[in-house]
Amino acid sequence: MTFSEILQATYPLPPASLDKMRALAEYVELPKGTVLFRDDTLAHHIFVMQHGLARAYARRADREVTFWFSEAGAVLVSIRGYTERAVSYETIELLEDSGLFQLNMRALQELYRTDVHLANWGRVLVERVWQQSEQQLIARQFRTAEERYADLLHHSPHLLQRVALGHIASYLGITQVTLSRVRAKLK
Questions:
Q1: Pair 40, 130: CB distance under 8 Å
Q2: How far apart are alpha carbons 109 and 111 in whole angstroms?
């Protein structure tokens, strides 16, 4: 997907607004293991992923809790930094070498103030993040480990080939031992 196609998939933009976003974007190639956002740091950019894979997680005591995985076409953003200009809750790291478009958050916010189409794009972006968060919360509260794993298999089976099982288990809210049992049961 091109940068413009990714933006348009979030919210349809007229050519003039797309041009403003293209002018703001800087393409970067970053290696696996790069941390885009750190949970103790204020975020200054958002990223639009052209290719690669990333995960968001929080550190809790002696473990990491994975919130989500994102692939090509995703907009990577620390929502707390984006909406409140506050330190991130999560760390977002690349799980593969990735190509991303980097956008300065302050410059983007200025575009929102001057272009209603871009302001709507930003609103829809946040709405989608909230919707995904709600879906994940409901799944963790009301679905069994087997149901959550079956859902992952149905919607994103390729992640099992690209993501370490420890990260998958964390995302599902279970231990690796439980994940092994679930996988054996569903085969």
A1: no
A2: 5
Closest CA to 87 of 38, 41, 36: 41
**How is the chain classified by DSSP, letter by letter?**
--HHHHHHHHS---HHHHHHHHHH-EEEEE-TT-EEE-TTS---EEEEEEE-EEEEEEEETTEEEEEEEEETTPEE--HHHHHH----SSEEEESS-EEEEEEEHHHHHHHHHH-HHHHHHHHHHHHHHHHHHHHHHHHHHHS-HHHHHHHHHHH-TTHHHHS-HHHHHHHHTS-HHHHHHHHHHH-
pLDDT tens sequence across 48-75: 999 999 999 998 888 888 988 999 999 9
Query: What pairs with residue 10 in β-bridges?
Result: none
N residues, the chain: 187
Cut 0.85: pTM above it = yes
What is the side-by-side order of every strand in the sheet holding 63-71?
35-37, 91-94, 53-60, 63-71
Q: What is the dihedral of CA 150, 152, 155, 160, to 10 degrees?
A: -120
Which neighbouring-strand residues pair with 66? Answer: 57
Q: Which residue type sits at 50?
A: Q
User: How far is Cα 57 from Cα 46, in angstroms, rounded to an integer?
Assistant: 17
Distance (Å, whole) CA 32 – CA 94: 5
Distance CA(172)–CA(8), nearest Å, equals: 30
